[in-house]
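Reposting from the mailing list since nobody answered there.

I have sequence plus structure tokens for a pair of proteins and want to know whether others read the tokens the same way I do. The first protein:
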Amino acid sequence: ASVAEGHTLEMEFRIERGQGYRAVERGHDETAALDFMQIDAIFMPVRKVNYTVEDVMVGGSLQKDRLTIEVLTNGSLTPQQAMSDAASILVSLFNPLKDVTLEPKPDEEAKEEDPTNHIPIEELQLSVRAYNCLKRAQVNSVADLLDFTQEDLLEIKNFGQKSAEEVIEALQQRLGITLPAEKSAKPS
């Protein structure tokens, strides 16, 4: 501030502790006088963080990674304290996840149990015509094919009886899977 000769500038500061960033909440601080000027507060002592990951040989043959972290602070706490505080925050954030038990949805569980679901249709060694028709119908794996009945196969564009029989035979011989002949009646 520039002060003219013969005048004085008098200020009082309020210094607080906190975390992160706190914006001024205008009209919410009853302790503030009319001549009190509030400013946003930044409680971030860490100014800059750099890290590098290097390959390190341990015991001559075991390769591991070395993490080097450079922490620069404003001096209100040491880099070691900043790392310790950051680790504590991470632990408290992830701690609730350690006892979580995840149960797959019933549909997903059934599909994941059968490894044949992930087999691409290329491995069925179909004729070019049958393969191309299935690809155009967005059938890419055995799991996709199992959504069809023998009746549904005949509804695929340019997919005739001979191609349907070829697919049914390939599924039966290579994987022991039989497609249902027609859709089962829905219970009413």
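The second protein, same order (residues first, tokens after):
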Amino acid sequence: MALSSRAHAFSVEALVGRSAKRKVPEGRDEEPGPGCRPARRAPEAEKRPKAGAESRAGGVQVELQGSELWRRFHDIGTEMIITKAGRRMFPSVRVKVKGLEPLQQYYIAIDVVPVDSKRYRYVYHSSQWMVAGNTDHSCITPRLYIHPDSPCSGETWMRQIISFDRVKLTNNEMDDKGHIILQSMHKYKPRVHVIAQDSRFDLAQIQSLPAEGVQTFSFQETEFTTVTAYQNQQITKLKIDRNPFAKGFRDPGRNRGVLDGLLETYPWRAPLALDFKAFGADSQG
């Protein structure tokens, strides 16, 4: 039976609909009535930048370059080789800086500090790192590596990608070549420092951070475990696949062919057969 417009205004359906749309105090979310579905909100993760890709401090913004590759390593468990002579990092730390004063002179530097006070070991049957005990890092002071282009104006730094691909990691505690000294089987993270030039001292001659004028940035995905040989085969494979200096490992057949070609350019001679009897030596059976 159809209701008149006046009767419909007092129907149960109309009254329920009104209660679902009642006003609420400002600042509180409106509670939907029975059977009402809350409006779908845009996921916050899509609005935010990817975690770790950027770091900010005091108006200065540092963006990690190659963050996707770093994340791929981090998801597996990044390992970095350290040697007595020093070994370069891969991936290397590369950043872009924004928000500097264009005319101000800055030093850009990097150091590597422990993530915790634990020593680790790799468990092969479960393919994961486990805590093996405690350690003391106080015997090694983090060494500061100053980018060779320092000092430069903020304008110059902001125009370029700042690469620390020349940084080398060593386990030689007596190193005198400026390499970063670390201990094997420990977890570390690189830190990037933006340091305003101060006429009171020459940063190029010091090995530790000044007490003021420093802004420090770090990225979770750049954390790594130090090793003298890769423990995780997935890390080995990813390094070979993505490191341009590991080309020889990716195509061994091609290199073997080049080597064979070089050998063919030399005249072949049969190996010499020495007769030891001429020297008075009897052969033994």
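Reply #1 (J.P.):
I read it the same way you do. The chain is about 20% helix and 25% strand.
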